[in-house]
Amino acid sequence: MTDSSIDQLKLWDSEHVWHAFTQMANYEPLVIDSAIGCLLTDIQGNTYIDAVSSLWCNVHGHQHPVINAAIRKQLDQVAHVTSLGMSNPTTIQLAKRLVDISPDGLNHLFFSGDGSSSVEVAMKMAFQYWQQKGGPQPNKTKYIALGNAYHGDTLGSVSVGGVQRFHEMFKPLLFDVLRIDSPDTYRLPANLSQPQDATQYYLSQLESLLQQHHSTIAAMIIEPVVQGAAGMIMQPAGYLVGVRQLTKKYNVLLIADEVAVGFGRTGAMFACDHENIQPDLMCLAKGLTGGYITMAVTLATTEIWNAFLGDSAHTFYHGHTYGGNPLAAAAAIANLDIFESEQTMVNVHARTAQLANLLKPLMDHPHVGDIRQRGLIVAIELVSDKEQKTPFENLGATGTAVCKAALEQGVWLRPLRDTIVIMPPLSISKTEIIKIVASVEHALHQVLDINRT
Ligand SMILES: *Cc1c(COP(=O)(O)O)cnc(C)c1O
């Protein structure tokens, strides 16, 4: 590409493209022209390791030959078939595969286009279920959600969201939600020193809420095991299974939002598998097509499905034009095939251990407050005062500067404020992991040494 066409593209990018979660006043164009495996190449020919999986969705690397071939093959059959009253073989086969691998009891699934929509679907299904089940409980109309939750950007998913800087602005548009503390193991509740004690603390908070309000609550929604956009907040062991027991006990549906944690990311195929729980509804998106094409699903139990059978009044009046798109379904089937043919989870476990080992020395850095990890999700939280766990005053500036310095080293990262996230494709290699950690370490010293002088 010539210098002038590069400049032209960058100019058009800054002038016309309104980027997601980006302050356009100081956007610096980074234009990726191609990618293969875990390596991105920009229009100037620079390469970067994709250390956050193109925002948490890439699974087996870019341009995987099996996924590419599956999409091409489908393209020669049909690119799109509506899911409104009709079907196609590829989407049907994907549905069966997903039902087979997901937690027991989730035998039905509804296709949509993105994670936010899959959450909307789950919430509407939960609501309508109580209205029309045998022996209806029409007062069950509310939701419980966690502090700092992130479930997407449509207004329903924003209502259950709890990240102040994203959600505060829209408050007048949102419905009320019953909120409980984010089950955090870094900043423990007062008077607790051990993460294992936190489990009981957070669960008793949930139980008192349920005791008081269960007759009006339709569902509780949770990002199981790791709350992503909150800053990769990791839940204490036993919390998730406790949540499942309590929601069952008080007759409240449980929605597991596995949009970010599904498909091997945390070291199990689904985060719910870590504590062997069966939610009533489960949302999947980001990793579903291996990070290739937009697609999401909401899985539901037969108990819920049955409540929607009957006359037209029982129908679920909801749908997205491209839900169940066969090109996306072909990519999703190929994604699942590769988990088997490449034994992806073996690499996940090996790279998880390697990362943990390599990151240990970083804990000695005076501004590294916490390094937490579940599978191939790592969060390095930078703080101004390590003892007090005090955040930096200019929130986000340090995280941004560290990631910028890492980019100069050939590693692309995107922080959550001052938390550095390492979340590479599951196919990441041993040498790429070494390079990612070395770049982060270099970047930390570069940025924080300047700040200290
Ligand atoms: C990304 C995300 C969503 C939203 O998915 P989109 O495809 O971006 O709409 C919902 N829930 C969680 C937990 C997520 O991380």
At a glance:
The chain contains 15 helices and 16 strands. The chain is an alpha/beta fold. The strands form four sheets. A seven-stranded mixed beta sheet has the order 4-12-11-10-7-5-6, sandwiched between helices.
Walk me through the structure.
Helix 3 runs antiparallel to helix 12, helix 4 crosses helix 12 (326-341) and helix 13 runs parallel beside helix 15 (430-452). The longest helix has 23 residues, at 430-452. The protein has 2 domains: 31-60 and 343-448, Aspartate Aminotransferase, domain 1; 68-341, Type I PLP-dependent aspartate aminotransferase-like (Major domain) (Aspartate Aminotransferase, domain 2). Helix content is 39%, strand content 16%. Strand 1 and strand 2 form a beta hairpin. The strands form 4 sheets. A 7-stranded mixed β-sheet has the order 4-12-11-10-7-5-6, with helices on both faces. It has a 4-stranded mixed β-sheet with strand order 1-2-3-15. Strands 13-14-16 form a 3-stranded antiparallel β-sheet. It has 453 residues and is α/β, with parallel strands linked by helices. Residues 114-116, 119, 150-152, 223, 228-229, 257, 259-260, 285-286 line the site of pyridoxal-5'-phosphate.
Topology:
Blueprint: H1 3-16, E1 32-36, E2 39-42, E3 47-50, H2 53-56, H3 65-75, H4 89-101, E4 106-112, H5 115-132, E5 142-146, H6 155-160, H7 164-167, E6 178-180, H8 195-213, E7 217-222, E8 226-227, E9 233-234, H9 239-249, E10 253-257, H10 271-274, E11 281-284, E12 296-301, H11 302-307, H12 326-341, H13 344-359, E13 368-374, E14 377-382, H14 397-408, E15 411-412, E16 419-422, H15 430-452
Parallel strand pairs: 3-15, 5-6, 5-7, 7-10, 10-11
Antiparallel strand pairs: 1-2, 2-3, 4-12, 8-9, 11-12, 13-14, 14-16
Helix pairs in contact: 3-12, 4-12, 8-9, 13-15, 14-15
Bound molecules: pyridoxal-5'-phosphate (PLP).
